[in-house]
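Thread: "does anyone have the structure for this chain?"

Original post by V.I.:
We have the sequence but no experimental structure in hand. Need at least a predicted one for the grant figures.
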Amino acid sequence: MWHDVERFPTFMTHLKEVSVRADGRSHWVATGPAGSEVEWDAEVTEDVPAQQISWRSTEGATVPNTGSVRWLPAPGARGTEVHVDLTYEPPAGEAGAAVAKLFGEEPNQQVRDDLRRFKQLLETGEIARSNSTPTGVRARQSMSRPAQPGAEEREASR
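Reply from O.Q.:
Generated one for you, tokens below.
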């Protein structure tokens, strides 16, 4: 699944679109703070099957970035741990990074949430949504709260 980057928007809610070009590079379109849009091209720099994939953005990226995904055996032979390392240069420097973090849009925060959804997708085949967000509203982390039953379910349980 990590090689099929065009499917990433199914579990990475900040991604609008990822497309792979004929030369093997990929084009990424993501939402940024305050509904802005950022785009960049990326290339794979290392691909060791079942161990690691590394990438970097190409010259001229709005948000220059590098990163890697590593897969490690979980302790006690209980599956696989996925480790993501991400380095990026925010468009507005440290101030932009602080604002993005405040609104739950800082890339490292998003990656943590994306990994939870990825795990859910692999284990269950879907990403569960509560009745209060059936269409998968892109809730900000600072506004997130545990799912609660909707009004209909509360009435039915009385």
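V.I.: this helps a lot. The mean pLDDT is 78.
O.Q.: and The longest helix spans residues 107-124.
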